[in-house]
Specification:
Layout (H helix, E strand, L loop, with lengths): L7 H11 L4 H11 L2 H18 L4 H8 L3 H13 L3 H9 L11
């Protein structure tokens, strides 16, 4: 884990998120704590990770999500070489990697 993210304020934030009980509570909390653009960007990044895992091309991802190729590259780097947060969630969501897909 990157040392730059871990501190008492981030611990408090994550503890608060873990206390949310349903999607409506998530909407209410995140609407108060972040801008709509920030929330939508997070959602787009998760969609990019899902699409990368299932073998979508950059062009398909840009068309569906509207994100830049730079964002796709950052998500791809995190997906394959990061802290495994995307992989943990994608596994739990049942999003499977395309057969024979090359991770490089």
């Amino acid at each position: 884990m990157s040392r730059s993210i871990k501190d008492e304020f981030t611990d408090q934030l994550f503890d608060a998120i873990l206390m949310l009980r349903n999607r409506e509570e998530c909407y209410n909390f995140f609407e108060d704590i972040a801008t709509i653009s920030e929330i939508k960007a997070l959602g787009q990044r998760l969609e990019v990770a899902k699409m990368l895992r299932t073998g979508a091309t950059y062009e398909e991802i840009v068309e569906k999500t509207g994100v830049s190729t730079a964002t796709i590259s950052r998500v791809k780097r995190s997906l394959y070489y990061g802290a495994d947060g995307y992989n943990l969630i994608l596994d739990r969501m049942g999003i499977r990697e395309e057969e024979g897909k090359n991770k490089s």
